[in-house]
Give the backbone structure.
Amino acid sequence: MTSVSAPGGDAQRPWWTSNRALVLWCGLGAVWLGAAHLDWFEPLTAHSDRDGLYKLQGIADDPSFRALWHYFWGDDPQRVHTFRPLAAAALWGEWHLFGFTRWPYYLVNLGWLWATALTVTVMARRLRVPEPWATLAGPLLLLWPTLGTQSVAGGIATRHDELCTLFGLWALLALLAWRDGGGRRALWAYLGWALAACLSKEQGLILLPLGVILGAGTSWRRLAATVGGSVVVGLVYLRWYAFAVAHMASEAHRSHTFGGMLDLLLHRGVGTSGRLFAYNLAWYPTDTVSQLYAGGWAALTSMIMWKSALLGVLTLAGWYLIWRDHRRLGGVILLYKVVIYLPVLPLHDTWPWYVYMPHVLDPVLYAAMGCALWRRTPPWRVVHRWLDERGLLLRIGPRRNGAE
């Protein structure tokens, strides 16, 4: 059996968990996502993708370099009071290549999602999810897409969500490397990618307080560097944002301002917000309880309710095992989901692409849960031992006896 050396040890990695195989699996996942969820023959109209059409029309009205420069100091091509210059610049370049033909934008979307899937597996390995489960995490993002993933794959204006999420994951990887003893290059990478995420969508700003929280528990020197760098990047972005807003001709919709989003959050019903928030954290039993509350005894005859109940039991067991055996992994993902989801809670059920970023690490969580359940549930435990004895599995995380 062909194998390659695993990083950080002398164990052998099966070929189907190698980096080359990962590229292939994520590519096949992108093909599946495109074939199963995208309509390649639907033309670009105000009905099929209104925001995307209006952004491209804005670029077509002025395709000059002067307009491209203006995106970094004013409104974006759609003129809806948004400051997302990196995403606007990407669409500017794509329009010069593709015009109003819709399907090439789908290919670009799938390319960004493919890169994100690769990053998800890198994140799983950084958080020490054992193989082959870590390799499974990336393709799972595309093979089992959430509503948010499907929406960003099928849109043109959602380019900012794809870029913000990808840059945000790169920032988080660099931050974890810095937290684990990496050099200053890791800190600069975190700050640079965090700023790039902010310039792709305002949602990226929440990465900075997330970085400060994750920086706790390190040395005072590293914590001070993390906090100081995050504050500087945040102030630079907010000043840049304020300057751009002052040069916008359009008036802001409240969903495009920080104050408007806070107002929407505070005016959502407490029960609705709490249920949605718990569901985002993969506490699925709350969904089962809400179905029983809404449908009464009649809900017991619903297959959807029983599927929800089964998912709730499995995820509760998974959360328990993760918190017992992989507490760092569970803590990082839980903190990420809490911090990233809160700002978009008011609009999550209005525009589904808002939940793409909060759910992007779900495959890492599911891979870790699957690994924990597999190892501790007979007869899977017997199968796992048989595979492990024959070198078909690679344990990247610490062994039970504490040895690497």
